[in-house]
Every structure is written in C-alpha cells, then in structure tokens.
Amino acid sequence: MIDYTAYISRRVSKVRARPEREPKPFKSGQKVNTVRGVIEHPILQVPAFVFEEDDSYVACKACCVVE
Questions:
Q1: Phi then psi for 58, rounded to 5 degrees?
Q2: How confident is the model at residue 20, as a pLDDT?
Q3: What are phi and psi of 52, to 5 degrees?
Q4: Predicted model pTM
Q5: What SS3 state is found at 11?
Q6: Would 41 disulfide with which of 9, 28, 48, 60, CB 3.0-4.6 Å?
Q7: How far is 18 from 24, CA to CA, in rounded Å?
Q8: By C-alpha distance, which of 41, 42, 43 is closest to 60?
Q9: DSSP for 21-63?
Q10: Distance of alpha carbon 9 from alpha carbon 27, whole angstroms
C-alpha cells in the first residue's frame, strides 16, 4: 500500500488518460496543483488528493509528482 500522505506539499499534475491527448486542467484552471491532504474519494472509495489552490479532489492514481 502506498503512503500518499508523503505527497502532502508536493506539486502534482494529472496523468494523461490517453497518450494522444493532454490531461484536463484542475478545477482551479491550472495544470499543476499543490497537495493539501489525502481523503477517501466519496464516489470511487480510493485515496484522493485535496489541493491548496481549490477545494477539489482527484484520485491519487490519476496524478503524478512534478519535479
């Protein structure tokens, strides 16, 4: 099991759903957001990141760390 709390304060972007398309931006309109915390996704029942830039959440598996 991955400890997603280690990603708090890190910057992440969404992963491409399809290789030929760019990933959608976050609710804030940005392509990169800062992780504020980890919750259980209310629909998918998987870990999800909550972001500092807005109050949205995205499944952790749909994000990758930006260096």
A1: -140, 140
A2: 87
A3: -70, -35
A4: 0.90
A5: strand
A6: 48
A7: 11
A8: 41
A9: SPPPPPTTS-SEEEEEEEEE-TTT-SEEEEESSSS-EEEGGGE
A10: 18
